[in-house]
Design goal:
Elements (H helix, E strand, L loop, with lengths): L1 E2 L6 E2 L19 H5 L1 H5 L5 E12 L2 H7 L2 H21 L3 E6 L2 E6 L8 H25 L7 E13 L2 E3 L1 H12 L4 E4 L1 H6 L4 E9 L8 E9 L5 H8 L8 H15 L4 E6 L6 H13 L5 E6 L10 H11 L8 H15 L4 H10 L14 H22 L2 E6 L6 H13 L5 E7 L13 E5 L5 H11 L7 H11 L3 H13 L3 E3 L4 E3 L10 H12 L5 H10 L2 E3 H7 L4 H13 L3 E5 L5 E4 L2 H9 L3 H18 L3 H4 L1 H10 L3 H17 L3 H14 L6 H23 L4 H16 L5 H15 L3 H12 L1
Parallel strand pairs: 6-8, 11-14, 11-15, 12-13, 13-14
Antiparallel strand pairs: 1-2, 3-5, 3-6, 4-5, 6-7, 8-10, 9-10, 16-17, 18-20, 19-20
Helix pairs in contact: 4-5, 9-10, 12-13, 13-14, 16-18, 17-18, 19-23, 20-23, 24-26, 26-27, 27-28, 27-29, 28-29, 29-30, 30-31, 31-32
Bound molecules: adenosine-5'-triphosphate and magnesium ion.
Length: 768
């Protein structure tokens, strides 16, 4: 159904104009068009991002153009472009360029799409189907068929002024050439991001022009029919269900109340990936075990938000009347009529309303002639009655998934339904990501349940499921828990990424760390959804990016110094980010402190910035902080040192790392001191002035040696190594008074390790 915004008339999906008043209707799948039309036209800062690129081209365009009259050829090409574009925009794609007869299409830009790779393949299959139909039509007019090939690849690009640059684009274009005629192929990367959604077949390793290594290419045949991410996870083996005892208990209690005729509604509320669907799925198993209960599921869709009553229409078709699209219209209407006759005998009006609601034509039950607004209300009433009547025989549980994507009409119906089921055997569980609270949550039969993050122990159980029980190195486990902060989806994806990376080497019953844990980045499976979350913030995105450079937490006053504009504007932007659950207020008060709710969101915002831009922002932050906070250099030199390092000003950074090391050493915080001093040492080679470099090195090594004594004790090899290095530096320069201190420490080291030979040699050397 396509609801007319002017007269509220329900039009069939295919209508572009209202059948009642002639008003232009919005395209219900027009994600690419309406949602970011304005943005797509405006200049946007260059950014790094993961993008999925579809390239679609004609096969044999030259012979075709020779075969046809130029005007007919032009018409055919225009038609092909129109057919393809319609499908592309319906899946959220953006036609970036026409390359000859080919189309270069982005999924995930200008607007991030949560599942861009999946949508791109659906669009590709859709184009192939649509061209088949279009060819049938043109062959009836005596024209030859148009044949196409499609290639899809996902990867990192830099998008500058709406043009993606990087190898990803070349690979997508080259892949297209590897596809069979009227076929669609994808790269291993796109396959990895869409595992489980499509039936694919490897067509082997293919050499692609201009690409160094041959690439395994996969042809996509069809969709597997999986409806949700959870369906796919189930096939691969779900993580053991952990925690959520009290949430599950609440769901069961309210189910019991509903079965006793006190219809209840539970709104499960929580961020993406927190486990709403999994909780409902676990609850479902209990209902399904009960032969005297019924369970029906309605799903909202991100791409049907402008389609009035979409989840209800699908619910009635697939779950209530069980009519598949394979049945013809007559068979469909017969099924609906016979079931309605059982539930509401002789209610002709009811039947005709429901048939019209489902856009199923039947000459015996013609649509009622009433005002559109009235009809809409009649539909809503009838659906509620239907639900109640179904519940009269056996208690019914209706699950409505993803309320954050539900269209306004279904939302309105839900508000009315919640009141109507108060004394009925109907139970509604609905899940949602953060939304503005609907008014009906205040009704007495509604419970709102917020899903909390999992505990560290629960998180570890999910990790161990992925490792099949094998122990992960402590530092890796620690990184996974801090980066994912109890969001099970993040835990699963990050663990999978780490296990599949070169960071770890699998041994018989453990793993060995090979690389640096700093290399743990955002899993590509989460990139699209994180970027989509950031893109939705459009006008406050810059604040998020600045925040990501400032650090995991920052104060209001710091942010205010960094961004142009009024204080009130900055505050409003931060408020919005708190509402969107991107940030939370860690400390309130006159100078509130904000923290990113997720390390991964911070990482996503940070990595979307060009490297050059990041560097510039770090430098701006360091300089502004140094100027504005007198005491900062004394109190937190490491903060300035960090921003100067990332900003590329090493002359400033090195002495600040040294100062930080010295401050921590005074309070014997040896671990902190060591890491600050090591940072300073690692940057020394950037200091050009020799004397200065030697002075810094000597001080850094002396303090570091002292800290090794504190943390590891005198007889540790690091002590000797560090003071020996310091001795070299001191001797390289003029004889410094510091040399005496170095020698003293080395002598103590030899004493403590009972290395009398070493002690003797050094003493002799000193005498000379
Ligand atoms: N309690 C849990 N124990 C173990 N695994 C869990 C738990 N909760 C969720 N998961 C796993 O985490 C992943 C994400 O969960 P789920 O799909 O339920 O999130 P969601 O909140 O519904 O997200 P979205 O808002 O995107 O729909 C799934 O693979 C699921 O199996
Ligand atoms: Mg879900």
């Amino acid at each position: 159904m396509n609801l007319c915004p002017k007269c509220h008339h329900q039009n069939p999906h295919s209508s572009n104009f209202c059948n009642n008043c002639g008003n232009k209707l919005s395209e219900h799948l027009g994600v690419a068009s309406d949602a970011y039309e304005s943005e797509s036209k405006s200049k946007r800062e260059a950014e790094r991002r993961q993008l999925t690129i579809l390239f679609c081209d004609l096969v044999g365009s030259t012979p075709l153009s020779q075969q046809l009259d130029p005007e007919d050829y032009r018409n055919m090409i225009t038609n092909y472009h129109q057919v393809a574009e319609k499908v592309i925009s319906s899946f959220g794609g953006y036609v970036a360029q026409y390359l000859g007869d080919g189309l270069l299409v982005y999924f995930g830009y200008p607007e991030g799409l949560e599942d861009a790779p999946k949508l791109s393949i659906q669009a590709g299959l859709g184009i192939l189907d649509a061209m088949k139909l279009s060819n049938k039509d043109s062959s009836s007019k005596g024209f030859p068929p148009i044949q196409i090939r499609i290639g899809i690849h996902s990867g990192l690009v830099v998008v500058d002024d709406h043009l993606a640059l990087g190898e990803t684009v070349n690979i997508a274009a080259r892949l297209e050439g590897a596809a069979p005629v009227n076929g669609l192929v994808i790269s291993p990367k796109t396959l990895q991001l869409t595992q489980g959604w499509f039936n694919v077949e490897s067509i082997g390793n293919v050499e692609l022009k201009g690409i160094a290594e041959p690439l395994e290419v996969f042809q996509v045949h069809s969709e597997t029919g999986a409806l949700t991410r959870l369906d796919i996870a189930k096939k691969r083996g779900l993580s053991p269900f952990v925690g959520r005892e009290s949430d599950l208990k609440l769901l069961m209690e309210q189910w019991k109340n509903s079965k006793n005729g006190k219809g209840q509604v539970v709104l499960l509320h929580g961020e993406a990936g927190i486990g709403k669907s999994r909780l409902v799925d676990t609850f479902e198993a209990n209902v399904m075990d009960d032969a005297n209960s019924q369970l029906i599921i309605a799903r909202s869709s991100a791409y049907q938000q402008n389609s009035a009553f979409y989840p209800l229409i699908e619910l009635l078709k697939s779950e209530v009347f069980k009519i598949s699209n394979k049945l013809n219209e007559k068979e469909q209407s017969e099924k609906v009529i016979s079931q309605l006759n059982n539930l509401f005998p002789d209610d002709i009006k009811f039947i005709s309303l429901i048939l019209e609601f489902l856009s199923i034509g039947n000459t015996e039950y013609s649509p009622l002639m009433v005002a559109p607004v009235l009809k809409r209300q009649m539909w809503m009433d009838r659906i509620t009655q239907l639900l109640i009547r179904i519940g009269n025989s056996n208690p019914v549980c209706l699950i409505i998934e993803d309320l954050h994507w539900t269209d306004a009409s279904t939302m309105e119906w839900l508000g009315q339904c919640v009141q109507a089921i108060d004394n009925q055997q109907v139970y509604i569980i609905t899940t949602t990501r953060p939304i503005d609270a609907p008014a009906w949550i205040k009704l007495k039969n509604v419970t709102v349940q917020y899903l909390e993050r999992l505990s560290v122990d629960e998180t570890m159980k999910i990790c161990y499921h992925q490792t099949k029980g094998k122990d992960l190195p402590k530092e890796i486990l620690h990184q996974i828990t801090i980066k994912t902060e109890g969001v099970p989806l993040f835990v699963e994806e990050l663990t999978k990424m780490v296990l599949g990376s070169e960071l770890l080497l699998e041994k018989e019953d453990t793993y060995e760390v090979l690389g640096s844990i700093k290399d743990i980045s955002i899993p590509s499976t989460l990139q699209d959804s994180l970027l989509a979350r950031l893109d939705r913030l459009s006008n406050v995105k810059e604040i998020v990016q600045m925040g990501s450079v400032l650090g995991r937490e920052f104060s209001f006053s710091m942010m205010d110094l960094m961004v142009p504009g009024e204080k009130s504007e900055t505050l409003r932007a931060l408020d919005k980010l708190v509402n969107e659950e991107i940030l939370y207020i860690k400390e309130s008060g006159s100078d509130a402190v904000f923290q990113f709710k997720h390390a991964l969101i911070q990482d996503a915002a940070y990595s979307s910035l060009l490297k050059s831009k990041r560097q510039q922002m770090h430098l701006q932050i360091a300089e502004t902080l140094e100027l504005s906070y007198d005491s900062l250099t004394m109190e937190q030199p490491q903060l300035l040192a960090f921003h100067y390092t990332e900003g590329g000003n090493y002359d400033k950074a090195v002495p600040l790392w040294l100062a930080a090391g010295q401050i921590f050493s005074q309070s014997n915080a040896s671990l902190e001191a060591i890491s600050n001093l090591e940072n300073g040492l690692s940057l020394l080679h950037h200091i050009n002035e020799k004397k200065l470099r030697n002075d810094y090195e000597l001080d850094l090594l002396l303090t570091l040696g002292g800290m090794y004594i504190v943390s590891h004790g005198f007889p540790h090899p690091k002590v000797k190594e560090t003071f020996n290095k310091a001795r070299e530096v001191a001797q390289r320069t003029e004889i410094s008074p510091k040399l005496a201190l170095i020698m003293l420490n080395l002598l103590s080291y030899y004493m403590n390790t009972e290395d009398y030979k070493g002690h003797h040699a050094l003493s002799k050397h000193m005498e000379e």
